[in-house]
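Researcher: I need the complex structure. Ligand is NAP. Inputs:
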Amino acid sequence: MAFQSINPFTGETLQSLAAWDRERTESALQQVAAATPAWAATPLLQRCDLLRKAAEILRTRKDTLAHLITLEMGKLYTESQAEIEKCALGCDYYAQNASEFLKDEMITTDAGKSYVAYQPLGSVLAVMPWNFPFWQVFRFAAPALAAGNTGVLKHASNVPQCALAIEDIFKQAGFPDGVFRTLMIRAADVKAVIEDPRIAAVTLTGSEPAGRSVAATAGDNIKKSVLELGGSDAFIVLEDADLIDTVKNAVISRYLNGGQSCIAAKRFIVVDAIADRFVSAFKTAVEALKTGDPMDPATTIAPMARLDLRDDLHRQVQDSITAGAVAVTGCEPLAGSGAFYKPSILDHVEAGMRAYEEELFGPVAIVIRANDETDALRIANESRFGLGGSVWTQDLARGERLARQLQCGAAFVNGFVKSDPRIPFGGVKASGYGRELSHHGIHEFVNAKTIWIK
Ligand code: NAP
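Model: Output:
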């Protein structure tokens, strides 16, 4: 079976679904292709009304959908509820702002009239990950559909029920058949879909190898692509940081979602003057996290989404310890059937260790000690990744100066990096290219077309 829905807390297989054969995929693509011109010609305000309906359905079904997310990938039920709320917010945001973002842009030239018209590209393929199984999809779909594109989803293999539930939301909201389809296909089938002439563009959120492969096919076929890849965000703690507030935010940023967020703080780069005090307070806070049933409101840290991911993480941790990193707390799997990894801190991480060079996609914080501010900035920018970063200091001007020098797509001062429909989201370097959300996101999959009239 290609798609296994397995509860990461109990290990129970909830559902197994076979991958579609070529005929079934072909029939879905035909339906999407047939729907594409009519959807592009549908007035923008009508498209936005349907997005508002999708938001309503998300809110009405919030608890059921949140339960499904928790069952399939293990995050805390409260986190799943917040994710559904955020999807509704994203739909409302584009329903409200798309017409302003996409209005003709008048430009004064030697013509009698000249302007840019933003027109849809056609059908966009979205290859999506399991860690925010609804939000990742909605933050692509809301702007893409509002702009008049149709959408085709290849979701991660471990969240097939979420994939089908998302398709159903658009259907129930009244989007015409074929405007949004979920394809139950394997990763190996993605190449052929990108190559298909009925697909105009592709967006992928996921790992670097998947991004490389999708971008290569898109490039080969001269199709627009957006890549939202991994990150190893710096969380720079300067000697004048407010220790209590900084530690509180460090815990949320690193351990939210079972530690499986692309924009989680992953590298805690702490200047020597505060490092021992930070590590000691951080350890106390991390040891207070409570593992357990993700449906139980008393649980404060979720299991990881799959056992194989937990085992990969443990290997990265063990190799780093062998290379000289120091386990402050955790650093081992929790016994039992759930895919739990103990909330962990690795201190004295240095260049050359796996924890320094690679993304740790689970509940493990790494502490890298820096001599001073300049050294901290050097370490932060030494990463191959460039998704987000944050600076913690009571001197806001100093924080802003450093934030501007961080090589990443989003730099926060005294706040942990988060996504918000109003601000652009995306990375530089090996974290990918292109932007989602805000007006930048809706402009990724449109033709900025010049109209020139004498
Ligand atoms: P993944 O293994 O790359 O999977 C992501 C999606 O890509 C899945 O649908 C997967 O399908 C598909 N896929 C995998 N290999 C592919 C290939 N060669 N060609 C085409 N499609 C392929 O990533 P993951 O483990 O699910 O997610 C974790 C990674 O995503 C982390 O690195 C994380 O930082 C990153 N991430 C980035 C962002 C961001 O916005 N920048 C957000 C969330 C996550 P199958 O499931 O069928 O393999």
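Model: Summary of the prediction. Residues 1 and 18 are 5 Å apart (CA to CA).
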